[in-house]
Design a protein that fits this description.
With 396 residues, the protein is an alpha/beta fold. 32% of the residues lie in helices and 24% in strands. Strands 14-13-10-15-18-19-21-22 form an eight-stranded mixed sheet, sandwiched between helices. It has a five-stranded parallel sheet with strand order 2-1-5-6-7, sandwiched between helices. A two-stranded antiparallel ribbon has the order 3-4. Strand 1, helix 1 (18-27) and strand 2 form a beta-alpha-beta unit.
Amino acid sequence: MNKRFLLGITGSIAAYKSAFIVRELIKGGSEVRVIMTQAAKEFVTPLTLGTLSKNPVLSDLVKDEEKGEWNNHVELGLWADFFLIAPASANTIAKMAHGEADNLLLTTYLSAKCPVFFAPAMDLDMHAHHANQQNIEALESRGNIHIPSESGELASGLEGKGRMMEPEGIVKFIENHLLAKSPLKGKKVLITSGPTEEPIDPVRYIGNRSTGKMGAALAERAIELGAQVTVVSGPVSLKYPRAAQVNHVTTAEQMFAAAEDEFENTDIAIFAAAVADYKPKHIAKEKMKKENDSLTIDLEPTRDILASLGPKKKPNQLVVGFALETENEMEHARAKLHKKNCDLIVLNSLKNQGAGFAVDTNKVTFVSHNKTLDFELKQKSEVATDIFNFLLKEYL
């Protein structure tokens, strides 16, 4: 999910499962910070959770009394994209429902601006008690998201409802909850990303400085919006979102073949890759030796992937192209928009500081058939959001 999670852990035997929740969230690309009540420490150690989360575990309002240092619950509440309380004991649920704030977990809960998920864990009769059910209903009525307990064997030896949902189920529940409200649910998105490498000999190649960061940001945002995402990526060192299907390729011809296979069944195709424009006519079978003061390599054009696939788009398909220019930017962008049958061109220039390859930011201009929009320098993740917001507003 690649989100920031606060994981609140309360005093329940199910607290041992919280270690597996941390692991599942981190495997999905999220950052996790853990807040424990004092009672939770009786069931699982802060050392375990700190090691898994790679962040210090927090439990006290006061960090260092002598130095006057404290754990800022307001900042924690603002930092998180989601607050997950699992396990949520009957005691903590009651305090949440009645606005009590006698520990760091509760003060952070009352300060949180993000969605809050809570997964109850308690014995059969406690779970079924009218007071507990009223507290759960009160939290739900305020917009807190209840992850229902499951039936099974409980710590007391009884069988029944009250068992906290298993860690994999909790993470899946959150993912499904987000997808259910996603405007791109059921849509297929194809993204080309990264550079291509055109071999000169077994050692050398023609390439560029693209890192795939923009493609990864687009994939992440599309997944957040509920889309089924396929990335066709040239050689990069970064990792794409776990939920994306990634086809790794090297050359422009391989990227074209992989993109063509996906294109017909794609709803939105975004061509963000920096494809080499030329390739050697002849690839040396052995490493070329340095024998002369100069070397001439005959080049020929690579296949223009966007020009090949754009004109083949179906009436309901959306095609987005990227244009990286250094001169006559708007003229070239508009020409590409029409020639390659795009719905949108995302124009950026290497003249803008902080834009282009190998950086986390970009400054872009949207060029469509009926409008032009200029944006300030932004994080590439924000640019990806702007692109999908534009498509949703204008076309979907």
